[in-house]
Amino acid sequence: MKRFLIVDDHTIIREGVGRILQGLLGQTITLDEASCGQQALDMAASCKYDLVLLDISLPDQNGLNVLKTLRQNCPAQPVIVFSTHPDEHYTVRSLRAGAAGYVNKGSDASVLKEAIEKVLSGKRYVSSYQSELLADALSETAENQPIYQKLSDREYQMVCMMTAGKTLSEIAKELTISVKTVSTYRARVLEKLHLRTTADIINYGIQQKLTL
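Predicted structure:
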């Protein structure tokens, strides 16, 4: 009997994914649910899961932060990031952070089934398109690599939050860091993206569809 943990802040998503998994894998799995990052970390610390399906957008913290903590605390637990964000936004970041695979929520159920089966067999799931993204990321001179890929995970998260309309004070409070630290990240983002103002960052984020 396999035991899975579904981490998503939307009840309907957790229940829907659960039904899909039961339909794909039959009665050979037990499903647990977590609605936020801290709950997922607490549950993973007290139970050995064969697989964790993890969303990026969680109410208390970014899914990548949860992923990194899971990899530190429970290195043997495989994690598939299961998100609405386009592959080009988070595939490379997720795999670098230790994910065993990245599946977009808009994918067919067969894709999710393939990813799960591959990960449960001890391998990583990477689609052909994701392989291209990884190849581009490994090539520093890749002309088609978006400039936002140069941002660190925290800087990228900052851009997404600013694009969503959050102020520096709101970002500082949500990330539990000082406004001064947020301002430092902002300065780094401006430098890396060759921009001048906060408005430029927001416009760039909108153009690139960088969202939480």
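Summary: The mean pLDDT is 90.
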